[in-house]
Every structure is written in C-alpha cells, then in structure tokens.
Amino acid sequence: MRLVIPVEPMGAVRMTGRGKWVKPAAQRYIEYKIVVGWEAKRQARLEVPIQKPIRIRELVFVMPIPKSRTRQVKPGDFHTSRPDIDNLFKGVTDALNGIIWEDDSLICEIGRQLKIYGDPPRIEIEIEEASA
Q: Residue 3: beta bridge partners?
C-alpha cells in the first residue's frame, strides 16, 4: 500500500499531562496527527486496521524549501536541519495507529527513510504485511 499525504511533515512533540492542552506546539501536533490520520484513512479505505506484522518499505519526508534558501537548496537535496528524522517517523507512526495498523508495535521492519527538500511538502509511505 502506498500513501501520499499532502501535509508538511512535523516531528513528534513531547507532551505532559497539562502541557498538551496549553502548549501551542502540542496543539499543532495533535491537529497534525488528525490530518495525517484522516488523509491516510481516505486513501487506504481499510475496513479494519492491519493486525499483522508490518514492513515499512519506504518513508519519505518531503520538507518545504525555505524562501530564504531557494538558491542554495534544490528539490531532492537532503534536509539536514530539524526536525530529526526519528521524530518525524514517530509523528507518522503515532498518527496511523488505529487507522492503518492497530498499533505501531506491529512495525517489525523499516526500509529506506529519507528527509529531503521538495515541493509540495508531503509524506510518502509504502507499507506491506511482513513475512519472515
């Protein structure tokens, strides 16, 4: 299954009990996960989330090219600033819990991950059921 989610990738935000209700970054992260989840649900059209081991074959985070760096950065260049790729990964896997897979603990294998510049910003993910 291949999904292309038209959203600017966002890394996971650390949230504490009260903080998730009052911190603007936490609120943006919650809204981000909702948008990613709805778009994935629309594209995948699964009746129930996958409940078997999962392989993420490819995960590409296409980050926006900053206006101030248009001459220095080309589409396809590596994005080497924040957010970190592991936080981006966590944000996507959390957003797809209960929608694409029952829980992200089912992810057993991760293939290629990229964080690049491009237009439009998006998340491209290719997944399949894993077999040993």
A: 125
Residue 105: both structure tokens together? 């603990």
Strand partners, 89: none
Q: How far, CA to CA in Å, does 107 sit from each of 3, 16, 51, 55, 128? A: 16, 25, 10, 6, 10
CATH of the domain at 7: 3.30.1330.70
Per cent of the chain over pLDDT 70 is: 92
Task: Report DSSP state, residue 50.
Answer: B
Helices (H), the chain: 19-22, 24-44, 85-95
Instruction: Look at residue 75 and give its three-state secondary structure.
Output: coil
Residue 31: per-residue pLDDT:
95
Q: Rounded to whole angstroms, how far apart are CA atoms 113 and 109?
A: 12
35-60 residue pLDDT tens: 999 999 999 999 999 999 999 999 99
Q: What does the alpha-carbon distance between residue 28 and residue 83 come to, in Å, rounded to a whole number?
A: 14
- Evaluate the CA torsion angle 83, 85, 86, 90 in order and state its sign: positive
| Domain, as residue range, for 18 | 2-129
